[in-house]
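Input set for joint prediction.
Command: fold jointly, output tokens.
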Amino acid sequence: MTLTILLFAPLAIGLVCLAAPARAAGRIAVAGTLAVAAYTVALLVEFDASSGSLQFLVDETWIGELGISYKLALDGLNLILVLLTALLWLACTLWASMRSYDKPQLLFFHMLLAETAVLGALLAQDLALFVVFFDLMLVPFFFLTGIWGGARRVQATMKLVIYTLVGSLLMLTAAIATGVLSARGAPGLSFAFSDLAQRELSTSSQYWIFLFFAAAFLVKMPAFPLHGWMPDAYRTMPLPVLAVFSGVLSKVAAYGFLRICLPLFPDATTHFQTLILLVALASILYGSAMAFTTTEARLILGYSSVAQLGFITLGIFALNAEGAQGAILQSFNHGLVVAPAFFIVALLAERAGGSQDIRDMGGVALRAPALATLFLIVAFATLAMPGSANFAGEFLILLGVFETKMAIAIAASTGVVLASFYALRLFIGAMHNRTGPRVDSRELTPRDALVLVPLVLAIIAISLYPQFALQRSEPTIAGERAPAVLAAEPGSGP
Amino acid sequence: MTPLSAAEKIAGPAIDWAGLSPFIAVLGGALVVLLLGLSRSRAAREAAVPALSIAALALAAGLSVWQWGERKDLISGSLRLDELTLVLTLMFCIAGIAAILLSWRHVAPREAAHGEYHALLLTAIAGMIVLVAAQNLVTVFLGLELLSIPLYVLCATELRRASSLESGLKYLVVGSLGSATLLYGLALLYGATGSTDFGAIGRALGADELLGDPLLLTGIGLTIVGLGFKASVAPFHQWTPDVYEGAPTPVTAFMAVATKAAAFGVMLRLFHGPLLSASDDWAPALAALAAVTIIVGNVGALGQSSLKRLLAYSSVAQAGYMLAGVVVASRLGLQSTVFYLAVYLVMNLAAFAVIVARERDTPHGDDIASLNGLGASQPLLAWPMTIAMLALAGFPATAGFIGKFYLIDATVSGDYTWLGVLIVVGSMISLAYYLRVIAAIWMTPDEEVAPVPLPGADRPVLAGGSSEAAGLRGQGEVVAVAVVFGALTLILGIVPSPLFDVVRDAGAALGLL
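tokens >
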């Protein structure tokens, strides 16, 4: 029941927003997401960090004929991401409520529907339920981008939806096949992760099913060859939407690998390990190179996300505990870093005559020292400065990969260096350098500080105490990933 | 010694009036409505006739619910009353009621005379009931003709619009070709098995020597083609876009959902009944047709700007999905097909209701442009259309998702995984056109803000002007249909269990594994 409240509270508030007058919608949404965030923190306090099992379990039959159960739970894999979701949604709703949008009721309804969908995908402990929420995530973002987006929004939206839904639909077939094929010789159809993990799936079926899932997740991330929708979508998405999209949705895809592919398809995971690692490596190098060359601030962050998600994937497919822990920590870090970075880009654009090109910015720091300080912290976190939680995350990931695939780890560590290039280039280009021709710098306003300062404080907090995330994920990872790790053992190791 | 009376000499078949009652209600309603349509009172013609038609359909639906759980042969085994018949009868009645509500103030019944229009609609429904209940090849053909002939006429009821007449004529010609092919197929089936009765055919095929007999194979092949015409299965679908576009929109809505349900109902009766043991013969052929249909329908819809043509091609694609369910000769296949038929009915009626409303409100007719800016101006129409399109594309939290889930489940279980993948590929293609409709509703502003007079409003009615233009803005019943079926699409996507229960009963009726 506790998790059902958490899951559907945003949707309920969204429906209230839909019925509310235009002026009140924003406030209702902020109050609602604040309540959701507070509730999440309460769950976090109650969460037993020493246990690796499912907590706050809800298990009901949803569609008995199809073997789909309504099964939700928190454990070490999703706890931190649920927290990230609640925090970023609060920040983005707050940001949106202080700016004027056309049809605000509809905007906040879609924002909150999206929160329910993301929470559902994270909490689901049933493969079919996961697919339902994973696909549902797309619907509100389709409307959010298509209605409130910038120039060429309809085309960008179409591209985004078709790319991601092609992946999602492949995943739907794969999910159904997983349930049906593994039910042969077992009592009845079931999609619950716990049942699927115990049932046998032939190696050849695992191969194609794994590839279908991987396609869905890699598109959503996006990873290097499947990122075609990303530039257009990032250019046009309204900013608060983009912040949650980049901050949270990509992590749901990474989480999907960890939750579904590794435990359920262990043979395929080891078989395709090198392939996915190479895709991740390509994403790191390509993303970093593009982030270093493009001049649009949004795209710098977009391509840096491609690179960061490459790191996260790398950690997951190291197929050991260090890699997985690093991946979870890094997912949290990246979400926490990229959202304020997008807000700062929006503030910079407001000060640079509406342009989001870093060539039009410059010299902003002179009159806005507080903004510059916040940005510097975010930039340092992005480039994984030693001392930041991102450093701990990337270190764990690389450590994990070093243990299994030395060559890939060495190539990937250049990505860490490249990150400092593009992060500092963005910072220097916007904040220092010669003042741009149309730049009219001014200090952070209190309402923007209200959004940015807590997020930056959260970055500092997790940097000081990354064990917060690591401790909670450790017991689960030790249990959950055991099959894949064991299967990986013979082929790897020194 | 008293001579026997005539009635006593000829022992007529025992007739189970209770079992026949839904059929009688529909046909009786048709007769009453036809007579009432001759009345001189305008109120009787324009209000009482539709109201009575709805009452007859509601009565038939009620009687079907009353008969639920009965399984018996009617009229010497020529008809079969079971849950499959009853669930399809319910669908026909619901589609009929929706069609009558949509045509309440439509131009078609006025031009064709209310009595005739509604009587034809009810007769078509009676034909559908006979078709899906048939237990005999002759009854199959009777039912098919009883359903088709009224529909040929209904397509042409907008007498002053050339495209409506064209639509009726085209449907007549192509439909007759389909009927003739089917009749040929049925005759060959009779020739091969020596009986027109389903039970006897099943036994003859069960004897096993017949399998692979060229006569039988030709018969099955021609039957598939004949029914393929009715269900708009590619490559026999070419009539569909033209007829759907030309026919009055309420009639199109009715044809799209009810005719499809009837055609698939008889396919299930035939292929999952007497022809079951020959499934090795027909399943690969149907699978190939399903594959072609999914691709042709979805690709065909891509370039359409007319909503009715778009939905016509979409209905072809959806027929392909359902055919994939028929291919799987198991109870799961049957259940998933019936489930999808119900879902398909709900989604399409919501969409067509919105088209009817916009045809009356804008000068764009059924062009996609008629939906521009609908999200801002009329949310009560925008939401049902959005939900219907998302459901047709198979988004979760709508009935369409569950329906597709069930179909893919059936295909994978029946070792037709490739067909399941093809359903998904079709859905991917379909996104391109369903999302275009949603983009028009929410993301394209309407250029003309001021209400525009309908085309032909300035011309006299007889000269081709629209008689609708005169103050028919009120359309509460159309909006109600859209909202009800839009809501149902959503509800069945979240709480599908009641529909699953109904479908499970229908699946049990045929005694499949």
